[in-house]
Amino acid sequence: MVEDTKSKDFIRQIVEADLAAGKHQSVITRFPPEPNGYMHIGHAKAFSIDFGVAADYRGVCHLRFDDTNPEREEAEYTEAIQEDIRWFGFDWGEHLYYASDYYQQFYEYAVELVKAGKAYVDDLSADQMREYRGTPTSPGKDSPHRERSIDENLELLERMKRGEFEDGTRVLRAKIDMAHPNLNMRDPTLYRIKRASHHRTGDEWCIYPMYDFAHPISDAIEKVSHSLCSLEFEDHRPLYDWLLDNISIGCHPRQIEFARLELTYTVLSKRKLLKLVEGGHVVGWDDPRMPTLSGLRRRGYTPQAIRDFCERIGIAKANSTVDVALLEHCLREDLNKRSLRVMGVLKPLKVVIENYPVDKVEEIECGNNPEDPSAGTRRVPFSRELYIEQDDFREEPPPKYFRLSPGREVRLKHAYYITCKEVKKNTAGEITEIICSYDSESKGGDTSDGRRVKGTLHWVSASHAVDASVRLCDRLFRVEKPDDVEEGQDFISNLNAESLTLLEGCKLEPALAEAGPGERFQFLRQGYFCVDTDSTREKLVFNRTVALRDSWAKLEKKAK
Ligand code: ATP
Ligand code: MG
After folding, report:
1. CA of 559: how far to CAs of 245, 395, 464, 555, 556, in Å?
2. Cβ–Cβ contacts within 10 Å for residue 54, how many?
3. 343 in Cβ contact with 413 (< 8 Å)
């Protein structure tokens, strides 16, 4: 049972009541992805509910590939989906299933419906079927084939299966009610003819079950107790229940719907994500700007941050759009706790300390994580020539600018105070280096006379620094609702042309030469960064996972 201190969402309340009433002895849920794309953060919400509810009541959660549509499925996706769910820390144990393994059983239940006079073979064309279907405000009309005899239907279904008819010429339909207020109940299609090779069953079948037919039966075959899904299936629930009430399967899972996750500045639809991939708008499903789990992982997201996010948004019965800033907030909170602090200069500016000995190198002791004393310290070399951030120097400082400028003194983090003496420029008038002096008494960041400075800068020793490329990832879309478009346009027109900035020649403290893909760091004052999968010993590549909030950049923007 869930602890009482934790407020229970409506799904857990239902599950608990069902257990208390003895309706079920144990909880079985399932996550049923269609293997036609990679998992995105909306799927993470769904499987966190499926696996989470099962875990809370010592039940099990099945992973079932809903691979009943032969055309759009690829084995590549089944691998990727498992990897993503495992990364999240969820485990289905031995409960890995494929709906395609149930093809024979689906067929037998279809025959059972026909024998009971509850399904019939229809010859109407797709256009005719649409016409006969009616509209939400007007009833449909019965197909002329609706009253075929059971024997004729049985024979036609068998011949459909044997491949005697062309694709699309006949379907099997449930015989429910063509005037039903819910369009899903107006004699829905159960089977269609489609000559397509399936990734697991090959050419064994030329008729394939529709989702609304296969799904409830799959749930019942697996003895699922609670079938949890997103809200768009609410209108399908009467059909789910009708089917299980009209076949002899002896198990009737309870379907419960919850709100889909929608995020600002994001599209969450596999079809649209595929379009981004195929159109070359991103480098692949795992592009660090993608809302896929593989993209988020590559960018440096932790599963804990996403889990925390899912917990905070909770489980609601009504759809709403969540601000992506909340996801970023959860991410910062988690990374703050776990990331080692290092210094990295993204846009380097050379500083020469004129009164520091030419050949001297000091090892400066730096804390690894102020949030976590057990993270210890490391030593970072300090010498006469350093790099600081170009943004940390202004020849003519604006008001409230507390960083380096001519005549001004600042603190170098963990090291010394320096004062800017001179600015060197090339013939084009560009700044090439800054000449400074340092106070040898200020080591560690304090002075003997107690004078204070406002600015503290990060730095790296020029001769010790390692080079890296850094990708600054921004939101993929420039508007809150990428699907809001002018006529004739689609969401692609809302792509943010500046979602990726590549910086070359960034200078990092030397220990980072050893960093491998997936390792995460906080670059002091810059944000959180993660080593990209493209990274090698010869060429380090980092992604910026998320920036620290930069109050100065905000001020500057406002001023403009
Ligand atoms: P998409 O719309 O992205 O193509 P889908 O619903 O077609 O997603 P499935 O593979 O069928 O993708 O999804 C598996 C499960 O994930 C479904 O039960 C669905 O309810 C759930 N799901 C999909 N998208 C979301 C979302 N944005 N929020 C919550 N749950 C989702
Ligand atoms: Mg779906």
Report:
1. 66, 18, 38, 6, 5
2. 26
3. yes
Residue 64, token pair as written in the block: 């079932």
Q: Which one, of 497, 467, 503, 320, lies nearest residue 387 by Cα? A: 467
- Decide: 318 and 259 in contact? Cβ < 8 Å: yes
Output the pLDDT for position 551: 53
What ligand is nearest to the CA atom of residue 30? 1
pLDDT at 374 (0 to 100): 86
As given in the structure block, the two tokens for residue 187 are 């004699």
- 219: domain CATH number? 3.40.50.620
Q: What separation in Å is there between the alpha carbon of 524 and the centre of ligand 2? A: 43
- DSSP-derived pairing of the beta strands 540-547 and 417-425: unpaired
| Cα–Cα–Cα angle for 242, 247, 251, rounded to 5 degrees | 85
Ligand 1 close to Cβ of residue 35 (< 6 A): no
In ligand 1, the atom with minimum distance to the C-alpha of 34 is 10
- Per-residue pLDDT, 553: 55
Q: Which positions are catalytic?
A: 34, 260, 270
What's the structural domain count of the chain? 3
Cα–Cα distance, 106 to 472 (Å, whole number): 50
Domain termination site, one of 237, 258, 279: 258
Q: Tell me the pairing of strands 60-65 and 28-31.
A: parallel
Measure the CA–CA gap between 21 and 28, rounded to whole angstroms.
Answer: 16
Alpha carbon distance 266, 224 (integer Å):
33
Whether 230 is in the pocket of ligand 1, judged by its Cβ within 6 Å, is yes
Q: Are residues 212 and 358 in the same domain?
A: no
State if residue 261 touches ligand 1 by the CB under 6 angstroms criterion: yes
| Per-state percent for the chain, helix, strand, coil, to nearest 5 | 30, 25, 45
Backbone φ, ψ for residue 270 (5° rounding): -60, -35
3-state secondary structure of 73: coil
Cα(40) to ligand 1 centroid in Å equals: 9
Instruction: Report how far apart, in Å, the C-alpha atoms of 519 and of each of 270, 314, 474, 494, 530 are.
Output: 28, 30, 20, 32, 6
Mutate to test the pocket of ligand 1, among 40, 43, 61, 88 (most ligand atoms within 8 A of CB): 43
Q: Is 433 in the pocket of ligand 1 (CB under 6 A)?
A: no
The string of pLDDT tens digits covering residues 424-443 is 999 999 999 999 999 999 98
Q: Answer whether 512 contacts ligand 1 (Cβ < 6 A).
A: no
Which residue's C-alpha comes closest to atom 9 of ligand 1? 33
One domain, residues 185 and 50: yes
Residue 5: its pLDDT value, please? 47
Is there an atom of ligand 1 within 6 Å of 259 CB? Answer: no
What's the 61 CA to ligand 2 centre distance in angstroms?
A: 18
State which residues of the chain have pLDDT below 50. Answer: 1-2, 5
Give the structural domain span for 151: 5-258
Tell me, yes or no, whether 189 and 227 share the same domain: yes
CA–CA separation, 118 vs 99, rounded Å? 23
